[in-house]
Amino acid sequence: MRTLLHSITLIKSLHTVIFILMGGLLTILLYEVIVDQITYLTWIAVTVLLSESVVLMANGWVCPLTTYAENVGATDGQVADIFLPKWCAEHIFPVCGSLFAIALLLLVMRLLR
Q: Which string of b and e fits 60-79 if b means at least 16 CB within 10 Å?
């Protein structure tokens, strides 16, 4: 079991699952604020995505799984490269962060009217 926990493949797989879930939550959030349909899923998405943001800020804007992968022996800890080309992986934070900021702004606008 100890070897499995230190497997870069396992870390990349876990990162892939988390990335897909976060992307899904961001998509749900954007959809719901655009169509003005605020539901419990909106608040789950906001809570989880804000929590992720706090974790990233506390870790110097580096995913903790990246740090863990580097400690296990990955070169540059690149855990996103399992499913994304390097040029795409390098733009995840700016693109997703901008979309999240837009979604939050739309949410606030919807709530204040």
A: eeebebbebbbeeebeebbb
Mind giving me the DSSP string for 91-105? THHHHHHHHHHHHHH
In this prediction, residue 39 has a pLDDT band, given cuts at 50, 70 and 90, of very high
Alpha carbon of 82 to those of 12, 17, 20, 106: distances in Å? Answer: 6, 11, 13, 33
Name the nearest CA neighbour of 100 among 53, 56, 59, 57. Answer: 53
**56 touches 63 (CB < 8 A):** yes
Q: State the sign of the Cα–Cα–Cα–Cα dihedral 26, 19, 93, 45.
A: positive
Q: List, in order, residues 6 or more apart from 59 with CB less than 8 Å away.
A: 67
* pLDDT over threshold 70, residue 77: no
Which are the contacts of 21, defined by CB distance < 8 A and separation ≥ 6? none
